[in-house]
Amino acid sequence: MLTFKKFSLVIPVALLVGTLAGCSQASSKTTNSSSSSDPTNTIDSDPHPSRNSSSIDTTTTQDNPAAEESTAGLIKAQPTTQRNRIKDLNTSLKEKLGNVALPQVSGLTQGNQNLNITFNGDHNNYTINYTVGDKPLEFNKTAVNGQNPYAVLQKQTFSSANEAKQQVSYVVAEDAFGGMPVTGLKAGITAFYDQGAGNTHLYWNEGNWSLGVKTDINDDKKPDILAHQVVDWLDHYYLPAPKEVGQIAFNSTISPEIRDQVIRWQDGTMVFTLTANDPETAIKMVASMH
């Protein structure tokens, strides 16, 4: 079952409802937003976000001891050299970007002592690239640009909460895919199958999150395997609570060269997106943000 920690913001948030543009046999039941049905296509696009908004984005788990304990466990699990490496890089990032929420862990099981980071942008709109090289390099060093990021964190600030909402694909699975075959996940969660664009999809909801996993239609594996893993991970790691909508879109086919594991959530006029080449890496990084 998905568990949450909170983002504390100075911007009041209106109640929003998002939609997912699905490539599906049940698409007539789905309301399309202005964003693409494939969330991985939008990370490098320029939706012309506002450059004038000012805000503070810091996460807090102070009112949730379980979330605080989970985050502390993630950080402590890193060897000291790796823990110090990302701490030093985050210090450099905050000197440039101000008080922003950042992952406190690399999400990697090995090699993160050679973690490197580059970024561009400002407090309201930025992109941070996470790479692993043969050795640790200086923060934001040009040579890092030749390394393929295993994860990218992006923040975009828009002129209105409604515009921000349109960047997040959200669906109530039961409404969108009612009548399609279903399967049961743990904790009484019902997930709905769908097929389209050469893939088999499995969709469900937890809290304000819309979740979907897919496998190639010609693959012997079903999306169920990854779906069960995702539910297990989310029992242990606390994600930010979207205000008001968030999406998780994972691919069962994992490639080190492709970042098509996507977590995106709205917080008022801001939208955060983390793409990674591995779904567990993505969850750990987002869960450790503060």
Explain what you see.
With 290 residues, this protein is an alpha+beta fold. The protein has one domain (3-287). It contains six helices and 13 strands. The longest helix is centred in the first third of the chain and has 18 residues, at 80-97. The chain starts with a strand and ends with a helix. Residues 27-44 have a biased composition (Low complexity). Residues 50-64 have a biased composition (Polar residues). Residues 26-82 are annotated as: Disordered. Keywords: Signal.
**Largest beta sheet: what is the strand line-up?**
3-4-5-13-12-11-9-8-7-6
The main sheet comes to: 10 strands, mixed
Instruction: Label the structural class.
Output: alpha+beta
Shape verdict: globular
Order of helices and strands: EEHHEEEHHEEEEHEEEEH
**Count of structural domains:** 1
The fraction of residues in strands falls at: 25-35%
Number of helices: 6
How many strands appear in the DSSP assignment?
A: 13
Mean pLDDT: 82
Terminal CA distance:
22 Å
